[in-house]
Design goal:
Blueprint: H1 16-31, H2 34-43, H3 49-56, H4 72-93, H5 96-99, H6 105-130, H7 136-161
Length: about 170
């Protein structure tokens, strides 16, 4: 039933949560990739707005190998993995169009954006607590960085959520 609309035929569009989750996966896969993280670190100016923003996009950095990081690849990539899982879950849990006073695209956009802000903060917090060497200060700093990342990049997820049906 999830793939059908009210008339029973196959829908040409996915759900708002589904398109948002796909956008999260693509954003984390591309902007968190080792190639992009290396490029942003070496070819952008951190003192310019554009360079700083391109570096912010690399926050959920993931690695193919753990390098010298304790705990292996899973610990090195925990933040990116949690971000994708939590954002997808929150996009499905926050039913914007069912509870919004203003139905339609406006509520889908802000629901997608809010889900990504919350997912970024939770991913930073949980990755620090579940990773090697957990500390309360580190968890709070990571949650702040994650929520900031979600706030500054969540418009991408909100925009992707516009295309789907509620």
């Amino acid at each position: 039933m999830a793939f059908t609309n009210r008339t029973g035929t196959l829908s040409r569009y996915g759900t708002a949560a589904g398109t948002g989750a796909l956008a999260v996966l693509v954003l984390v896969a591309v902007a968190g990739s080792p190639a992009y993280v290396g490029w942003a670190g070496n070819h952008t100016d951190p003192n310019s707005a554009a360079g700083w923003y391109l570096r912010v996009l690399a926050w959920p950095a993931w690695r193919i190998d753990a390098g010298d990081r304790a705990g292996g690849v899973l610990a090195a990539d925990l933040r990116a993995i949690l971000l994708v899982i939590l954002a997808a879950a929150l996009l499905y849990v926050l039913p914007a169009s069912q509870v919004a006073r203003v139905p339609g695209g406006f509520s889908q956009f802000f629901s997608g954006w809010a889900a990504f802000v919350l997912a970024g903060g939770l991913a930073g917090l949980l990755a620090t607590f579940l990773g090697p060497g957990p500390s309360m200060l580190g968890a709070l700093q990571a949650a702040s960085a994650g929520a900031g990342y979600g706030f500054l990049t969540g418009w991408i997820i909100g925009t992707a959520s516009l295309g789907g049906r509620a």
